[in-house]
Records
---
Amino acid sequence: MDTITTTTGLNYLNNGYGLKSWLLTKDHKRIALLYLWSVTAFFALGGFFALLIRLELLTPAADLVQPETYNKLFTMHGVIMVFFFLIPSIPATLGNFLIPIMVGAKDLAFPRINLLSWYIYILGGLFTIVAAATGGIDTGWTFYVPYSTAASNSHVILAGLGVFITGFSSILTGLNFVVTVHRMRAPGLTWFRLPLFVWSHYATSLIMILGTPVIAITVLLVAVERGLHLGIFDPALGGDPILFQHLFWFYSHPAVYIMILPAMGVISEIVQAFARKNVFGYAFVAFSSLAIAIIGFLVWGHHLFVSGESTYAGLIFSILSFLVAIPSAVKVFNWTATIYKGSVSFESPMLYVFGFIGLFTIGGLTGLFLATMGLDVHVHDTYFVIAHFHYVMVGGAIMGYLGGIHYWWPKITGRMYPEGLAKFAALCVFVGFNLTFFPQFIVGYLGMPRRYAMYPEEFQVYNVLSTAGASVLGVGYLIPIIYLIWSLKNSPLAGPNPWGAKGLEWEIPSPPPTENFAVTPVVTQGTHQYAPSREVGIAH
Amino acid sequence: MPTSGSGDYHPGPVAIQPGGHGDPHAVHHPKLQHHFDDMAQQAEASTLGMWVFLVTEIMFFGGLFMAYIVYRYASPLGFEEASHELNLYLGAINTAVLICSSLTMALAVRAAQTNQSRGTQVGFLLVTMLFGFGFLGIKAYEYWEKFHVGHVPGPYFVWDGQYPHAAEQFYSLYFAMTGLHALHMIVGISIMTYITIMAWRRTYDAEYYTPVEVAGLYWHFVDIVWIFLFPLLYLIGGHY
């Protein structure tokens, strides 16, 4: 099937050179790489702010930066990491690259809209960077009113517009995925033959489509309120700040699932490849993605337990928050059952899988603490919350992202990466991460509130551990950036399928040709048949 | 490598059938993009894409409707008093104008779909745009009127009724909701301009009319938003 491409050696990377061939490309694979560079840059920027935060918290006094500056640091860290790294990270890079290939299509349904979404993302990013560079914002990434409408400086409008604009990039990505999965699947590729990566991205896209417009209108109203004095949220103008919190979390809680669901899709792929088994309970894993997306929309009220929400509303939100843990647990159990009696090997993508399963489990279970109304009153706005969501977002989403980048790197670039270094980096990330955030559970439970530059001396030992861990974590992130770039020229060629993995993406050359498939594939069985199907088994 | 020596390698699920889908030698419609198999798939993708986009628009306006529900529930009498000051006749005329524009829009889609002359297609599109401009003109007059009597929220807001506080909130929502709607009308007219130019160049016929249809979906959606805005803003104060 790849005779044309092997004879000419033409692939998406060498099919045209120069800036214009990249900036005006409609190829989903090149757009994925544009996103890869941009989200990496934003990750570095957000990480830089995190570094300053951790350095400041090394000592109890506010000695490195003033409290006002500290407020700006954690705000910029949150805004950049959430809106400009975590949300686009896996969908816009790996999803963009792989979904058309996994469904046997030549491209996403709307290639121009795909490119547009990248430009929108960059424009939104520029707004936010300008806001940061010209004075910063100190509202926290949540933009809570009245901080954002009355108390803060006017750069809130710029940063808010940045979030508003970049929201459209996420909407357009989700729209493109939904239409592609519905309308572009190759002949014979039924829904239940789709890779689980596609299922999880489909569920993610639903959240992007249904949730993002709500945050868009919310931050737009904050900007309008500041600019034109319309009284929507600001109590001084007759507005209701609690309405802001409801609208904000209606998106921002599901946004957590925008971050974690694609990572779960990555894990489902890798775990099958390195356990060399079909996933345990395919349909359960597939539907648990949809269940997370749907129930995830009904839990936002657990962020408002201490905001004057009625006890009855709180009770319902608490129960629903417990419910969303069930499909998440289904996935964890099914991955574990997939590994059980598999012929497991420990290449670096699989190390990230083990890291993900353990850390996500801790992150998820501590989420149940926070969904419990009484306990939440004790730990609300403490480092316990910080530790919880970093276990989900960093221990979960970024582990999945790094695992996915390693797993598909040979497909994306055509070259392997140095496995020894990769294993060492994965170890650094795991150790550094736990050293950073586990002490925060303890110090949070003991009562250290979030978002303060100063803290009592008895909390210092936990903060020193945390800062030490962050340094190890930083090294763990730096090493892959270096060796992955190095591998582009120096690593051995990967070949079409270095892992012996299943799925359409492993049946085309690495790097793939621009059109992905010389001829549209016709799919005759599930795309992930690691084990012989039952009928074949009887024949043996 | 992981598979080596396992001895039970199974061939992948792909079978290539030359001459099937994606055969490069088939004759293509000039408007068929390379990544689609045929015109039907392309049309289905475009319309589904627009429907999904309209879902996002519903959620976008939904935030404002939510705010409306919360504040009207908080002060129903104040909202009625404030609504009473809106010009019911202009609102009703504008509703009629938009419903007529939806009719001409639907006729424009039908004209393309049934291979009618470019004159007919362009005519219906132009009338649709004309209704759109008419709506915006009346809306602009209403805004001017509100500026004139001091019903624009902010430091210069004037209200001599019983509920000045709720009235200001009502007018905050009024301007936010109708303003966002008017913005969508302006976008709609821009899209219609493009569609009209393309129709004049004889782009659309029974085989290829998806852009007209998709633009029509958007136009109808913006009309429907107004169908909800009109009673919520203009009619609630009408019964006293």
---
Amino acid sequence: MSEVKSAASQVNVTRSLVLCAIGAVVGLAIAGVGLFSARGTATHNVPPEDIALVNQRPVLRSDFVTQLESETGETFEQATRAEKLKVLGEMIREELLVQRGLELDFAETDQMTRNALAMAMDQQALAEVTTSQPSEQQLREFFEKNPSRYASDGILTARHLVLPAGGANAGQSMQKARDAVGALRANTPVEAVISKFGLTEPRNDGDEFYFAAKIHLGDAIYAKALQMKEGEVSEPLQAADGIHIVKVIKDKVPVPLSYEHARLQVLTDLKNAQQERLMTATMRFLRERSKILVATDYSDYKP
Amino acid sequence: MNLLVKTGLILTAILVLGLAVGGTFVARTHTVRTRFLMVPADSIPADAELMSFAMSRGASAYSEHCASCHGVQLRGDPALAVPNLTDHDWLYGTGRVSEIERVVLYGIRSGNSKGWDLAHMPAFATARPYDLYAMAPLTPSDIHDVTTYLLAFRQPQADSAAVQRGKQIFYDTNKGVCNDCHGSDAKGDSAIGAPDLTDAVWLRGDGSRQSIESTIAHGLAGRCPSWAGELSPATIRAVAVYVYAASTPRGKLE
């Protein structure tokens, strides 16, 4: 009995080593195939949501349907089998080319790829903001912190007349302009004043939003116009291109909006602010973890 | 001892039965889920089993991820230009499940390059109404006239001269260019999300002069997030089916 036990417990060294070696070879072979065939630890089943897997990268059925419908102009049901297979072939081709492009590191060398990547990163910040809806309280707080942003549009209606430079001498021109101002203040029709005093009117768009009036009148005259009352005529304003006169016909000043009226704009502004904050934080994080060396002749560079 | 064996056998039997029932349920669910994902999305409404699979999942995912904007009743919020999902008036596409699924997957102006982002409503009361190309701002009178033209689609307007001026701006390639997106018949273009301006459905506001003027003046560029990568493909499809069902009259679902 004890002899049997001793025989059973005897270790066969050769067999152990052979089995161990076989195991190692099989392991190495699997690893080698995985490493050098670019197939990785491949699954042989295509998940139901995908139409194909290209080196384990999924091609979504939904993308397939969209591409098929956009290429053929038909619904998925209307498309023929041949059309479906053609689109599938194109999508697999694209995936293969993209993967090869990544291997070749096109992100480093191809400007269009770089632009697309940089833009995608910008958009990622947007995506994170878009998925979260601010609460009513957040909106109200933002509104209350930035009341000046929320007002109705200011609208200015003005006549802008110019006595062009280069005619009579400066003193005579100024006197002429004063006479024109006097006529306007005496309620002479603007057209009559223009024709009597040889004035020009660069443009007459009727009512304009403040921003447009500012562009058309120029900063100085616009600022002057905003200080005037409706019906008031300015003093002659000397400028390089001549003497300017403004008559304010109507000025609808902006009035603060209630929260209810401004809610949509508040939401947009808050989301834009959140996006900007997120992007700033992302850039700070990227800078902090990066080693950026700048040439000595640009040592004054500051992010 | 006998009792102990008997008890053991009974417990084992219960365990085996439980495992069998559970396994069958899991296998069944897996089969339905697989089929749910593999069939063309537009064919799901005609399949009672798949509809039943989708509705409860879709409802809970909608409630968690979409209701904060579109509302629990899916009716949106006109004050914030959040569309009503129950009226079968679709900004993008025609309301097919596959089209809704695409919106849930990639969003609208979501930052995902596969999402819808071809155009947005310019803000005509600003110096640069549109950021994609040059476009002239409109004056307050222009906006008033275009609004009068749009209101005339639903109700005759007393100021016919304003209607004519508004129509001119609507088609003016140097000024409003409204027809470029909203179409020559003003009925919109679902390929770019431009709404029909002739019907009674308004994305923002109530269709009053004030709300139309405000939209023309300040523009619109609503966003819908992309859920690709955040939610599973099955959940995304379930949400699409749920929204489709909410927008489709009951009779048409069967």
